[in-house]
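As a representative case, the lines below give one protein's residues and fold tokens.
***
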Amino acid sequence: VLDSQYGMYVWPCAVVLAQYLWVHRRSLPGKRVLEIGAGVSLPGVVAAKCGAQVILSDSEELPRCLQSCRRSCLMNRLPHVPVLGLTWGRVSPELLSLAPIDIILGSDVFFDPRDFEDILTTVYFLLEKNPHAQFWTTYQVRSADWSIEALLYKWKLKSIHVPLHSFGADKEHLASSSLPGRHTIEMMIISLAQSDGT
């Protein structure tokens, strides 16, 4: 039986996003990175190990996920990495006081369509404050009917699809999992759409 706090597992998307970070590790030292919906926080831990200044976050309503973030940091000798309670779609003092960031990470945050707009509202807020930042996200294709395209347009965001083979993440063993369901993973980089309509 899966824990209702889904952040208690390393989902295949986290492994794929961690692979992307590893392939781009030379660009990470000194970058300011925020992982949202971090859970076990594999991507954030990899980014920190590669020299990025990382902040991990998960919903303030999921204390076990926040504890999981802290435990991952301690197990990986990263006691200095801050862990914040940030709930998607909610403007909080923690969100308002965040230091500038370069990269937002999110692995498998798009798993419940009811959360899609809250996630993109939070991402839009962060990108508005940090116009040159990007949101690197991996997601598991669970339904052909689920799409964020209309929400990206609504929030003036654009996305670039990143083929998994371009960073060696298309190998069967990489995203395999004993967890239930299909494991078709996609990756995209989301950024602010330019005012010229692109």
Q: What stands out?
A: Strands lie at 32-35, 53-58, 83-85, 103-107, 134-140, 157-161, 185-192.
